Structure formats: structure tokens, C-alpha cells
Amino acid sequence: MRILLLGSGGREHALAWKLNQSVWTNPLYIAPGNPGTAKCGINVQLDISDFDEIRKFCIDEKIDMVIAGPEEPLVNGLYDYFKATEELQQIYFIGPSKAGAQLEGSKAFAKAFMYRHNIPTAKFKEFTIDNYEDGLRYLQQHPLPIVLKADGLAAGKGVVICQSYVEAIAEFELMIQQAKFGEASKKVVVEDFLPGIELSVFAITDGRNYLILPEAKDYKRIGEGDKGLMTGGMGAVSPVPFATPGFMHKVEERIIKPTINGLFKEGIEYTGFIFFGLISVNGDPYVIEYNCRLGDPETEVVIPRLETDLVGLCIAATQKELDKAELRVDKRAAATIVATSRGYPTGYEKGYEITGLDGRFGKQSLIFHAGTKEDEKKIVTNGGRVFCVTSFGEDIEDAVNTSLDILDHINFDGIYYRADIGFEFKKTPNL
Ligand code: GLY
């Protein structure tokens, strides 16, 4: 099967690594990919926001299957473009329709969807410039903290948890009046704050059936102890110790089933991955957000734990036969630690040589590239999140320690990573 994977981050390197192991794959193209994906397949310099460029490539290379890594092309309707273009209609496409991708592309859409299908989530109201004054009054009588979310895509930065009314009103004004996140914050969702502990749950669906992938927990803040600015993710662990069978049963019955059934009932086409960003409040799961793709860096622990052939699963999803598929999962724990560049997440430096990447690591560890590039036969930094080190272990602590040992031998100017990933789950907490 001739496969085209879209994207260039750590998530896509983990997917490419897995796809490359399948007997079905021949060849694997990654657009645009990174130096890590180049070891799993053939990188192609396509602009994945240019649908016509993707069309030409798929026709020229007789692509059989397209897998979308990031959300933007999906929110912009790449699935619909394939279905509306005669030469592309037969290609197996992993990713939802534009309507399905609205679960991520519009927070207001997602909240209304959850309300319609009785899926547990925080209470909310939405505001635009048209009801701005109502919004100010709503904020002033709302208990603290208050969660403000830009409605549209904002590169993971569109959610602000405000601890004071001054902060909430200033943020509200910045988002709506001053377009802090451009079009994305013309509408703002104001949500109740839910106290609890977060986890990420993933399913692959054919629109009717679904399989639940291993769950994960990511660590979004830059500083150890979950302090400081939000980032795209500094590490992740899987499994999540509090995701017991009892808790996961609640997740499936209260959240996953009603979501898949809701999409089906509303006639929204959805084939591919769905990401449930959840919070456990006193043992009950609530949805914080949906994403129409796999998470990053969660993919770097979820996919290595998946023993089932990923291409086979994707074929089953496109054939609406996921009820006949099954998942096998590695029982070991996995942890990934993200190495970032100096300055991240407010900005970052790039162009520094990375040394030690070719070290001889045991079979229990994998390195996934993200913001790297090849420059005169050297691998140099090219982004805020540079690469991840994923390791397996008997438990989370063991897996984290193995990744930390490897990170001791890799270096670039300004390297930073969190040594406390998985801290809540360690036998010997380091905090
Ligand atoms: N790790 C969260 C995300 O991928 O959005």
C-alpha cells in the first residue's frame, strides 16, 4: 500500500516509525517530515496546506492511503476535498470531515455537541463582539478561576485560566476586541473551572465502531512541578495509573460512546483518530476538549505501546470494519521526555548542532525527532520542541529514568527538559 503521512513533528515520526513496520506499507511518504521520518520512509517537500499540491502528488505517486497527522488540513476540509475530487475519491483517508473536525476547530461547536448528547463537560457561555457587554457582566459574577477559550485553532495557546477578575476582563478584551488570536478569538467560550487531574484518551473510529487506544497523560507546563507557561507538551506517560478499569468504563459509557453515536446520528462523517482531553473530578470524567487527531507528545508513548499493525487498523477504519479488529497493547509502561530549545515557549533559538543522537541505545528506547533539520550532514535544532526520548520500563519511574539516562548523552546549546515527567506516579516522588 502506497501511504502518504502528513505532518512533521514528533507525532508524525512516531506514526512513521510504526507505519514502516507494517507488511502493508510500500512505500511510505511523509510530507514534509523531518530527519527522523526520513529513516522510516521518503520525505517529500509538500505544502500540506495546499490541497492542490497534495492532489497532484497523490495522483502522480498513485497513493492508496492518506493519514493526516495535524489538525489544520482537517479543519480546513481536506477530507471533503478528497471526497469531492473524482481522482481522489478511492484513496483511503484517515481523518474526519470538516464537520467532524469542528470538534477541535470550534470550541463553541464542541460544547454545543456535548450538551446535545449529554456528555459531561464544564458549564459554558459563548461571547462575540455582539454580546460583549453581556460577557463582561457574566465574567464579573462568575466564580474564580474562570476559563477563557478562543473558539478557533490557536496553536495550543488559546486557553487561559484566569485567577482574578482583572485578568479575566483584560484577557476577554484582548481576545475579542484586539483579536489576540486573530479570527480564532472573535468568539470566546467562557467556561467553569473544573478542579482535578487530566488525562488523554484516544480512539480510532470508522464512524460507527471504535477501539480505545492506550491512554496517556501529558505535561503541558514548561517548569517542573507543572509550573510556568503552557507549552505544546513537555512529556507524557502511558498507562495512567488512575485510569483504572472502573474509571475507563465511565469514560467509555459517558463520553466515548455518546460522542461516536452523536456524530453518527448527526450524519457527521468521521474516520480516524479522536482525542478526548479529559479531567477526572473526584473519579468522574469530564471532557475539557476534543481534538480531531492524535496528541503530541502523547503519540510518542501511545503508538510504541500499540502492538497491533497500524495500517491494518487504518484499513479496517476506512472499510467500516473496526468491529472486526482488535487491539493488542504492550503491558510495559512508556514515558517520553521532550527536549526543548532555550527560550521556548515564548520564542526559541535554532540552528544548534545536536550531538549524541546516534548513541547506541537499548531496544527499550526510541528517539523521535520534532524540530530538527539536516544541515550539511549534521542534525541541528529547528524548533521549540526539538526531539523526544521515549523509553519502556517496568513502571513509569523506570521508563522515565531510562529516558533521562539517554538525555544525559545528547546535547545542544540551550537544551532544556523536565526531569520530573510522571512525578505523581513515582514510588519515590522527587518533589
Ligand atoms: N498534547 C496535547 C495536544 O496534542 O494537543
Q: What amount of the residues lies in strands?
A: 25-35%
Largest sheet, spatial ordering of strands: 3-2-1-4-5
* Biggest sheet features: 5 strands, parallel
The CATH topology assignment of the domain at 3-99 is: Rossmann fold
Label the structural class. Answer: alpha+beta
Low-confidence stretches: none
Walk me through the structure.
The protein has 431 residues and is of the alpha+beta class. Among the domains are: 97 residues, Rossmann fold; 58 residues, Dna Ligase, domain 1 (2-Layer Sandwich). Helices cover 28% and strands 26% of the residues. The strands form 6 sheets. The chain has a 5-stranded parallel beta sheet, covered by helices on one side. A hairpin with a 2-residue loop joins strand 16 and strand 17. Helix 5 crosses helix 6. The model has no long low-confidence stretch (mean pLDDT 96). The structure holds glycine. The site of glycine has 7 residues, from loops.
Explain briefly what this protein structure is.
This protein has 431 residues and is of the alpha+beta class. It contains twelve helices and 22 strands. The protein has a five-stranded parallel beta sheet with strand order 3-2-1-4-5, covered by helices on one side.
